[in-house]
Amino acid sequence: MIKLLNAGFSRLKKDKLFWGLTIVIIGFALLLLYNAYSDMKEYNSVVSVDGYFLNIGALIGFAIAILSSVFLGNEYSNGTLRNKIVIGHNRIKIYLSNLIILSIISIFWVLLFEIIIACIGIPLLGNVQMSINTFLLMLGIILLFSIAYVSIFTFIAMVCSNKTATSIICLVIVFAMMGASSILLNILTTPPMTTEYTMVDGQPIPQEVPNPRYPTEQERKVYEVILNILPQGQAFSILGYESNYKILPLYSLGVIIAFTGAGIFIFKRKDLK
Amino acid sequence: MEYILETNNLEKKYKNFKAISDLNIHVKKGAIYGLIGKNGAGKTTLIRLICGLQNPTSGTYSIFGVKNTDKKILRERERIGAIVETPSIYVNMSAKDNLLEQFKLIGLPNTEAIDELLKLVGLENTGNKKAKNFSLGMKQRLGIAIALVNNPDLLILDEPINGLDPEGIIEIRELILKLNKKKKITILISSHYLDELSKIATDYGFVDNGGIIKEISSEELNKKMEHKIELKVTDIKKFSKYFEKNKIIYEVIDDNTINVYGKINLSKFINDLSKNDLVADEVHEKEETLENYYMNLIGGAKND
């Protein structure tokens, strides 16, 4: 396993895409802070740096999807996966080493983003309201849903032998998760009551009535579970939806175990060309 | 006889299609074993199975005496180098970086041998040029260099000269001979370029319809290819009996055709036959080639 990890990291160091995505993440953090600082100056308002720590969730899924599909897809398209198997590397170890490499990269990107926000954002914007415990919980949630993303994309890239198909599927999944998470959040944040206007003597009279779009208790539970399972759902949740955040890491662990288990099961039996 | 590689009724099915069926090969230590067969005969499938890229549906194979069902097989694989179909190289890396990557995969800390390997395959002057800009021959040679990083005892080359120009073919041929003679590496090489194989192989395995229809050493084959007399006869049993009694090398091709091999004086031969009441309807003197031998074999297999 150490040999596989060593070879993987050595390849990653020379990978232009990895460095390109790292620059994009640095740029994204700086852009967020610049916009916040500009708004603060222009409107003379107070902006809290807290929310910016959590914004990596908007980008990390895309970054991992792109890197996983290309980094692992190249193993199939170049045929270099064969080199590992021919010389006797175990398939389970090959799968796990890829998962570990990409997980470490995702952790590196998240921490890099947080360090930039902390080192530049706190002196620039100030106004830190989040406690250290809450910050650590949020950081844990972000790291785990990032690894959950890695486990999903590693599964796709190791099971599908076609690099182009892998790239398309991974990106479609990120978009689909974003869309689904937005819809679910929309439903879950629907107010229970809505205002209806009735005309009395030609005058509109507002009246509070139960919102027909408000989900039932059972529906609510189902939507919340789906939102918690989706890594992107967790990324959106921590940005504003009131939820029991402490259980989110458990959902991520469930996703990681399920996809890695299924991926290893399939990859072990897969006929390679 | 010590076999580096052996298969025992190996079978590989893809849904309802049998790519390989009851296949048995025996590769001796130090041999250059030429696997001959047309496209789709099952050569690449066999190589994929041996390399561990696919699992057999039934049957077994042994590498260095260890069966594929034994967990120790992974250890034995460390003694194999292979190119399956196309060279497995990172196209965005230089030749040196590709080899460095393989060194790390194998866990070799000392990378001094990289320059030696590049020299061996004639890629020592490629510098930082990326592999995607290499010619097909250069890629093939880089693939061989990668396969040699672990100093293998068995080198498996699947169609290594496909698509190469004449110069590239000569380079690969010389490299294979050098590896076999100087480094004592046993080589399993598949190809449908019969002429090329006949220049290097010490043993042949003829593959058709997913099975080995004949295994023969080059020595034996050369004897057969030296000279051949084709006889068209009506009583094939009578002729066979006579040839066996007189220790004449022969082969029954079909119900009416029998081939006699070796340096034979034709007029004396016909005379001897007639003295024994053996009259052939037609007699043709022929020079056999590997191609003819292969075609006869495949034709024969089809007639069976």
Could you write a compact summary of the structure shown?
Chain A has eleven helices and two strands; from the N terminus they run ααααααααββααα. Chain A has 273 residues and is mainly alpha-helical. The model of chain A has no long low-confidence stretch (mean pLDDT 90).
Plain-language structure description:
The complex is a heterodimer of chains A (273) and B (304). With 273 residues, chain A is mainly alpha-helical. Chain A has one domain. Chain A has a two-stranded antiparallel sheet. Chain B is of the alpha/beta class. Chain B has eleven helices and 15 strands. The mean pLDDT of chain B is 87. The chains are: A mainly alpha (273), B alpha/beta (304). At the A-B interface, helix 1 and helix 5 of A face helix 2, strand 7 and helix 3 of B.
How many extended strands of chain A?
A: 2
Query: Number of helical runs of chain A?
Result: 11
Order of helices and strands of chain B: EEEEHEEHEHHHEHEHEEHEHEEHEH
* Termini Cα gap of chain A: 23 Å
User: How is the main sheet of chain B built?
Assistant: 6 strands, mixed
Q: How many helical elements of chain B?
A: 11
Structural class by sheet pairing and helices of chain B: alpha/beta
Sequence stretches where pLDDT stays below 50 over 5 or more residues of chain A: none
